[in-house]
Amino acid sequence: MDAPRDRSAFERAQALFRQRTGPLTDDLARVPGGFGLGQVPTRLAPDATTSMICGFCSTGCSLDIHLRRGEAINVSPSVDYPVNVGTACPKGWEALTPLRSPDRATSPMLRGKNGKLSPVEWPTAIDTFVTRFKAIQARYGDESVAFLGTGQMPSEELALLGALGKFGMGLLHGDGNTRQCMATAVVAYKESFGFDAPPYTYRDFEESDVLVFVGANPCIAHPIMWGRVCKNPHRPAILVVDPRRTETAMAATDHYPALPKSDLALLYGVARVLIERGWIDRPFIDAHTTGFDEFAARVADFPLDRVAAATGLERGAIERFAEHIHRGKRVSFWWTMGVNQSHEGVNVAQAIIALALMTGNIGRPGTGANSITGQCNAMGSRLFSNTTNLLGGHDFTREDHRRKVAGALDIDPERIPSRGSLAYDQIIEAILKGKIRGLWVVATNSAHSWINQADLHDILGRLDFLVVQDMYTTTETAQRAHLVLPAAGWGEKDGTFINSERRIGLVKKVARAPGQALADFYIFKLIAEAWGCGDMLRRWSSPEAVFRLLTEVTRGQPCDITGITGYDMIEKMRGVQWPLPEGTPVEAASERRLFEDGRFFHADGKARFCHADPERLPEATSADYPFTLLTGRASSSQWHTLTRTGKSSLLRKLGASDPYVELNPVDAAALGIAPNTHVVVQSRRGQMAARAFITRTVQPGQVFVPMHFARTNQLTFAAFDRRSRQPAYKACAVRVKPLPDGKRSGEV
Ligand code: SF4
After folding, report:
1. Tens digit of each residue's pLDDT (9 = 90 or more) over 124-178
2. DSSP alpha helices (H): ranges in 603-693?
3. Can you give the pLDDT at residue 34?
4. CB of 614 shorter than 6 A to ligand 1
């Protein structure tokens, strides 16, 4: 592909942007042939220590960043932050290392006629972006270009991407990698509570006398949250529902190793026992919920024998589960990917919510139906990415919402689409069908993380134009791009994240991005000007200016944060949980849970019991593929596709460097597989070589492979929850065979 010669669009953008933004940031000053004003120092003192939120998981720990001559040189956990109080997991301690990796993207790269990516200057890159995407839209319609974002960017950047894409470029379809982790919880909460509203505060980990974890392994996946459980002074009962004997299950009072994806039957069975024995909170149900009688009728079909057969658990274990809940005065229910990444995840999440509602375990200390989020700003994505929800948890299909948001942003309401977007999997499907021809992928590595990877690689190859905006040129997705835009990472830009307990915290620029890499925020601004919609986004002049716009958008919503006056207040308060409407006394803002007044967000103020019958596993085991494959996080030192944590030699040492598969001793003996020998795991879609780890953590007939390795998603089966469209990564059919002598991982 040749670089376009006409640079007028970019030059127009430069001129307009310079007029509007006033003093330029050092990011923009470094654009070659661009703004030419030299470097501007960061707003922090050169040898200061400042604190900011970690950029990996949704716990939202605060890290103290120690600066020398204006550059971050080291990290330690903040002792005065209410989330982590002086602790961090290995990823947090190594947070700066990925920034210094030699494979950082340092200039835009354009694929030429020789098929290779070569460096180009920003003007060429921006012109190419605009020219190619506009040409696709002119030929195939506005909907033929889509974007995929991420829960790793600050809310301000997510909102700007969504506004630029949907209100400026006329794209209808945009989704994010939060579809892979949190979509199920979003749908479950919206239907049950009337708004996507995880109700808890982390103090609930310490105040429960019974904690129920379903499909969650906080010991490994959210270790600082698990630390809060360990601080609980009430000697709580800890119940874990997980087919695998995870680290959390090993520490539990009771582990319920239900068969994969039988959790819905188990929860209905427990609900039936609670109802039959009168262990429910009838006054709470009557005053604050609707739909209980229908729910009770549904679960009446789940007697102990049926549930025992479905789950593989003893009848007594199911009764004991219910007894624990009954005896608890403050029972909290927690779930994460084992529930969300399921073909019927929404139903399971709503069954968990139902247990909390029917026993009155919500709105009080130590209670709640609590979804733990995945990425550092998945919660910000849920409110502000402008993908499936209109900004601020509004609805694209409602004219009053479109007018309200347009008013807050000072834009023409006609610019806001009246339809929601296709979900991630539907965007992929539309590429396959030739309806989407251009794709803009921002800070996510779809070619590694998407379910059934081999299909996706083929599908990405069909695009007329693929743009990847990322910190690294080496991701599997960037390697397939026609154009790579080099982006700054966490620590190289400003903004806010929202953590799992709805706490908004600051991220800051404490390091300079290398070469010509720019903060995503400024890449979006340059594109907006070059596209011709910069005028519409004139008030979106800086991350903090965008934050103020977003607070206004939330006015009157359940997530109303109009009481937050700016970044200084967030800093001073050590993070602020939503909601915080204007006029809320600051002393009331420290740590809060939702629904303390028993009012939910549906128009009648009541929560709803939602329920459905269990569905069959999308891909059951067979004689040819006799094992159920479980996938999940295997180490607290690694993050998702290893794009960043894989850059740290220390973190690599703390986790397994080569793929491995956990195999029960009974199965290993039957297959003649010895410990530490190499095997091949095969599904109907692909295969991976792995070292055999013979262990009773998995039950006979099940195997476990960590999610971090690139080949894991060559095995997974592309099934989705019908309502949330979240991929079901956790259970498909595979077989395991010994590898011939001398063969090792990667050689199949
Ligand atoms: Fe805390 Fe998560 Fe960062 Fe670890 S990765 S330090 S648990 S926010």
Report:
1. 999 999 999 999 999 999 999 999 999 999 999 999 999 999 999 999 999 999 8
2. 649-654, 665-671
3. 44
4. no
Question: Which residues are within 8 A (CB) of 713 and not within 5 positions of it... i.e. 6 or more apart?
Answer: 448, 449, 450, 451, 452, 453, 729
Helix (H) / strand (E) element for 427: namely helix 424-432
| pLDDT exceeds 50 at position 24 | no
Q: Which of 534, 488, 538, 544 is nearest to 512 (CA)?
A: 488
Which one has a higher pLDDT value, 226 or 18? 226
Residue 217 CA to ligand 1 center (angstroms) comes to 14
Atom of ligand 1 nearest to the CA of 499: 8
Sheet with 71-77, side-by-side order of all strands: 49-53, 62-68, 71-77
Ligand 1 and 57: CB distance under 6 A: yes
Ligand 1 centroid – CA 98 distance (Å):
15
Which tokens sit at 276?
């039959």
CA torsion, points 559, 563, 567, 571, in degrees to nearest 10? -90
Predicted confidence band of residue 11 (pLDDT cuts 50, 70, 90): low
Region 183-371: CATH code:
3.40.228.10
Pick the CATH number of 627-738 from 2.40.40.20, 1.10.287.70, 3.30.70.100, 3.40.50.300: 2.40.40.20
Ligand 1 near 92 CB (within 6 A): yes
Q: Are 295 and 350 in contact (CB under 8 A)?
A: no
Residue given tokens 């850059």 in the structure block: 647
* 645 three-class SS: helix
Domain spans in the chain, listed from the N-terminal domain onward: 183-371, 627-738
Cβ 630 under 6 angstroms from ligand 1 = no
Give 463 Cα–ligand 1 centroid separation in angstroms.
36
Residue owning the nearest CA to atom 2 of ligand 1 = 57
Question: Could you identify the atom of ligand 1 that is nearest to the CA of residue 56?
Answer: 5
> Which of 62, 87, 89 best tests ligand 1's pocket when mutated (most atoms within 8 Å of CB)?
89
Instruction: Report the percentage of the chain scoring pLDDT > 70.
Output: 93
Task: In whole angstroms, give the CA distance from residue 93 to residue 522.
Answer: 28
The pLDDT value recorded for residue 47 is 77
Residue 681 to residue 717: CA distance in whole angstroms? 14
**Which atom of ligand 1 has the smallest separation from the CA of 90?**
4
- pLDDT beyond 90 at 296: yes
Q: Which of 51, 61, 81, 97 to mutate to test the pocket of ligand 1 (most atoms within 8 A of CB)?
A: 61
Task: Look up tokens 């030419």; give the residue.
Answer: 36
- Index of the ligand 1 atom closest to the CA of residue 222: 7
**Ligand 1 centroid to 724 CA: how many Å?**
26
Q: What share of the chain is helix, strand, coil (3-state, %, to 5)?
A: 35, 20, 45
List, in sequence order, every residue forming a beta bridge with 210; answer none if it has no partner: 237, 331
Give me the mean pLDDT over the 502-523 stretch.
Answer: 94
Give residue-wise pLDDT tens across range 545-587.
999 999 999 999 999 999 999 999 999 999 999 999 999 988 7
Indicate whether residue 381 lines ligand 1 (CB < 6 A).
Answer: no
Give me ligand 1 centre to Cα 83, in Å: 10
